[in-house]
Amino acid sequence: MPEDAQDNLRYLLNQWDPIGVADEVDDEYDCVIAPLLSRLAAGAGRPEISEFLWHELTDHFGLSDPAANCSDRMADQLVAWWAALSRPSAEQNRLSQ
Length: 97
Prior knowledge:
Elements: H1 5-16, H2 33-41, H3 46-60, H4 70-96
C-alpha cells in the first residue's frame, strides 16, 4: 500500500464531508480509513464500498436519511482513486519480472 494512501483518503473523505464538520475537525472520518483501505485492497468494488459508506453514515454518524446517491458517488470516486493509486505498483511489478 502506498505510504500516503491514508493521507490521501483522509483528504478525499474531508472533501466529501457528508456530515459537514471537516472545516472544524480534520480527523472526523479517520474511523473509516482503515476499513476502507482494507476493502479496497481486497478488491471491493462500488457496491461493497457504497454499502459500507451508507452503513457508516446511518449507523455510526447518525444521519437519518443521507441522499440516496451520496454513498454511491463517493464509492465511485474511491474505487477510481484506488485503481489509479494501485496501477503504478502493478506496472512496476510486471516490469521487474
